[in-house]
Amino acid sequence: MYQIIKKVVLTPSIKLMEVDAPDIARKVEPGQFIILRIHEGGERIPLTVADFDREKGTVTIIFQEIGKTTLMLGTLEEGECILDFVGPLGVPSNFEGVKKAAVIGGGLGTAIAYPQAKKLHGMGVMVDTIVGFRNKDMIIFEKEIAQVSDRLFVTTDDGSNGRKGFVSDVLRILIEDGNKYDLVVAIGPLIMMKVVSNLTREYGIKTIVSMNPVMIDGTGMCGGCRVTVGGKTKFACVDGPDFDGHEVDFDEAMRRQSIYKNEEKISLEQHLCRLGGVLNA
Amino acid sequence: MPNMSFNKAPMPEQDPRERSRNFSEVSMGYTETLAKSEALRCLQCKGSPCMQGCPVNVRIPEFINLVAEGSYEEAYQVIRDTNSLPAICGRVCPQETQCEQYCVRGKKGEPVGIGRLERFVADWHMAHVQDTVGAVKKSGKKVAVIGSGPSGLTCAGDLAKKGYDVTVFEAFHAPGGVLMYGIPEFRLPKALVLKEIETVKQLGVQFEMNMVVGRIHSLDELTEAGYEAIFIGTGAGLPSFMGIPGENLNGVYSANEFLTRVNLMKAYQFPESDTPIKRGKNVAVIGGGNVAMDSARCAKRLGADHVYIIYRRSEVELPARREEVHHAKEEGIQFKLLTNPIRILGTEKGWVNCIECVSMELGEPDVSGRRRPIEVKGSEHSFDVDIVIIAIGTSPNPLIKMTTPGLNTQKWGGIIVNEETGATSREGVYAGGDAVTGAATVILAMGAGKKAATAIDEFIKNKSGR
User: Fold this and answer.
1) Which residues of chain A make contact with B278, given a CB cutoff of 8 A?
2) Which residue of A18, A44, A56, B449 has the smallest Cβ count within 10 Å?
């Protein structure tokens, strides 16, 4: 059992939890993820590690409530426990030889890009961070990520805060202004990572994306998380989750992400229906 | 008087039409009367030829004699002396190529139903006897076992009996390895697996779940933490794909993923359990081993109208157990033999809707002695399917190898060991089971775990200069 030490509600649907997991906290590096299961009969879901504290022995996860499991996770409070918490999984990000980087986070991906920016910043790399949100109410982690960035650019799709438009628009401007990035790290929705990768391909800038496919075990024994990279099948859980954005088949990844869309809907509806039943009783 | 019937006492089974719609165990096991009658078929041969077929040397005639006398608990103790998981072995061992292959009664008629009797004895014990643990003198020395499948469980149990403090590290949230995630409920009930594991726990073995060794602890760190020896029993869990077009379409599963969802995550109970699975109307399973049979029979139970086994050789070469092939056929699984898939086709939205195959014929025997399948020119044909499950084999998971310098492995990933002891290229590190041999059987993995436990005991004793 893994106790929730701290819980912060970042937006009505995005929550942060610091979980007591000393063995994982001792080992985890930016780019890695955990898999959790809330209760007996629950499913295993992967979540990227957003932060960790080796001394306190905690691992921070940030998640958006989009389905049954994340909604149930969101109802857990400080002091309560998560049944299973496995990690660190995947390969840590490799930033060797990088001098100037652009870190791009989309929505929830901002929190997941945070440890990457923090690591790069800590290595003495010049870091420009671009984060994008749907609107001003969805902004998260602005202060934290600002602290590990040389420059921070915030965009909202509707212009309700920061610049109006997409993260890729800002990146294009920065590149055209003569910023010489030797690495771009893009983390967020598949479509955002695809757009960014297409953009940087034009300029020949190395780009790392963090894939988040459907997973079960996270240890390489099922291939449910397979992604085509450079024409070859890779398992995101053991070969990734970081991959070269110019090599990833994003269209296939988007298609595979929707495999259980109907089942996810059924599961959520049934869950909400039961909750309703309890509330009305 | 021995029972001279040529045939085994038949084992009661669920009706095929009934059972192909549920996940309850197919074979219901012997009653006392049936067990005694079958036990009386054993001739108590001098030299016990059956025993040479058992990788863990169960004293077969001795326990069968006790069954004939009605001394079931004594029979259980004889089995448990050398076999840590009898309720499992009695169910899933391929006895026809092991103990029963050497049974004298098999020369004229059917061999004695050794597996069925072992199962009866183990089930009888579970139902009637509360286990108690005898005091074991503790040596105060620690051993780490990586993986809680059959080899790890056996090694851990044997070491605990020898007085070691054993900790088993398991990556999943449940122990058992393939016994939990691979073999379905209808062949091996999970409650029973957990109960067998309970008997290993009672010996004092500690289990640490959710521990992906290689990622969370390296082998060096385990040594630093005071483990005097390490046993690697991580199995062969890396699925092979065929490399044909369409394998990444939605609706294509590795058998490992399909079976893990069904067995470990109980996706057949969705949405009562949270893990979803795609239910197909027409399901193709590629491969001819036990894993293919298990996948096909699960797909049938999930409500498929047609389930096809696609296998490139003919029926005689099917590597699955005869009994499982027989059960699959009874349940309406259709066999497309001498058939090989060449691509999987999908809808515009990327969902599987068709599989294209070629017919095969058998040529000359290859190096493995099996007749090589050759494509028949112009025999391309296709049929509609909405789920494809690939069950063409697995290889050892590379994670430990990747994170352990100095651990020598075969080109295909198997850990290289001394066959007698299970010792690897690293001092104090032993390995066994599928991690060494590639996908094999539960009982061979148990045999390897047993051998390694003996070798580890000697290694630690020599090290501490006793």
Assistant:
1) 259-260
2) A56
- DSSP-derived letter for residue A136 is G
Are the C-beta atoms of residues B66 and B74 closer than 8 Å to each other? Answer: yes
The region, left, alpha or beta by phi > 0 then psi within -120 to 50, assigned to residue B413 is left
What residues of A are in the B interface, CB distance below 8 Å? Answer: 23-24, 27, 37, 41-44, 68-69, 83-89, 216-224, 226, 228, 233, 238, 252, 255-256, 258-260, 263-264, 266-267, 270
CA distance B65 to B75: 8
Of the candidates B171, B261, B278, the beta carbon closest to that of A219 is on: B171
- A33, A171, A156, A52: which is closest to A101 by C-alpha? A171
Q: Are strands A232-235 and A126-133 parallel, antiparallel or unpaired?
A: unpaired
Are A148 and A17 in contact by the 8 Å Cβ rule? The answer is no
Q: Min CA distance, A191 vs chain B (Å)? A: 17
Q: Is B399 on the interface with A (CB under 8 A)?
A: yes
The two three-digit tokens of residue B338, written as one number: 């001498």
CB pairs under 8 A between A and B: 111
**Going residue by residue through chain B (466 aa), what tens digit of pLDDT does each one get?**
788 889 999 999 999 999 999 999 999 999 999 999 999 999 999 999 999 999 889 999 999 999 999 999 999 999 998 898 899 999 999 898 899 999 999 999 999 999 999 999 999 999 998 877 766 788 889 999 999 999 999 999 999 999 999 999 999 999 999 999 999 999 999 999 999 899 899 999 999 999 999 999 999 999 999 999 999 999 999 999 999 999 999 999 999 999 999 999 999 999 999 999 999 999 999 999 999 999 999 999 999 999 999 999 999 999 998 889 999 999 999 999 999 999 999 999 999 999 999 999 998 888 877 788 999 999 999 999 999 999 999 999 888 888 899 999 999 999 999 999 999 999 999 999 999 999 898 989 999 999 999 999 999 999 876 5
* CB atoms inside a 10 Å sphere around CB B166: 29
**Run of H or E residues at A201:** helix A190-203
Nearest to B20 by CA among B330, B324, B328, B331: B331
Cα distance from B222 to chain A (closest Cα, Å)? 13
**Chain A contact set for B210 (CB, 8 A):** 84-86
> Residue B446 to residues B79, B233, B399: CA-CA distances in angstroms?
14, 10, 22
Spatial distance between the Cα atoms of A118 and A258, rounded to a whole number of angstroms: 32
CA angle A1, A237, B152 (to 5 degrees): 60
Distance, CA of A251 to CA of A261 (rounded, Å):
16
ipTM of the complex: 0.93
The whole-angstrom distance between B438's CA and the closest CA on chain A is 14
Q: Report helix, strand or coil for A149.
A: coil
Cβ partners under 8 Å of residue A14, min gap 6:
A62, A63, A64, A65, A108, A111, A138, A140
Q: Which two tokens stand for residue A95?
A: 């930033």
- CA of B186 to nearest chain A CA: how many angstroms apart? 19
Neighbours of B27 (CB within 10 A): 17
- Quick check: B65 and B54 in contact, CB under 8 A? no
